[in-house]
Amino acid sequence: MLACLLKIRYGPSQERNMYRKKNCRKGQGLVEYALLIGLIAVVGIAAMTFFSSTLNDSLIMSINQVISNASDYIAEGLNAGGGGGSPPSEPAPTPPSDGG
Questions:
Q1: Model confidence over 80-89: pLDDT tens digits?
Q2: Would you say 69 and 88 are in contact if contact means Cβ atoms under 8 Å apart?
Q3: CA distance 94 to 69
């Protein structure tokens, strides 16, 4: 940025100054976009790290519940000679505990 300002201020002609000023502004826009993308990435990583244990526990509990229900349904069907009934309804998921 400082180099751009020095080139603009002490350039040899007015036309070249305008060209350099335009190029410096393009570079500034690219840098601003890069900083914004970097900031979004850092915030996203921090949020995932912060919420990972809560989300991980609730996700694992949900998957275990679905697998348990499916295995119970399969076992009932095999014991009854093939089944043919409708699957059992899933209970409502329980909210995760605060862990404190």
A1: 766 555 666 7
A2: yes
A3: 15
Q: Looking at this protein, which amino acid is placed at residue 61?
A: M
Q: What 8-state DSSP symbol labels residue 12?
A: S
> Are the beta carbons of 96 and 58 closer than 8 angstroms?
yes
Distance from C-alpha of 40 to C-alpha of 74, rounded to nearest angstrom: 46
- The Cβ-side half-sphere exposure at 44, using a 13 Å CA radius, reads 6
Burial class of residue 46, CB neighbours in 10 A (0-12, 13-18, 19+): exposed
Q: Kindly state the tokens that stand for 40.
A: 């979004």
pTM above 0.70?
no
At residue 43, the 3 state secondary structure works out as helix
* C-alpha 37, offset from chain centre: 13
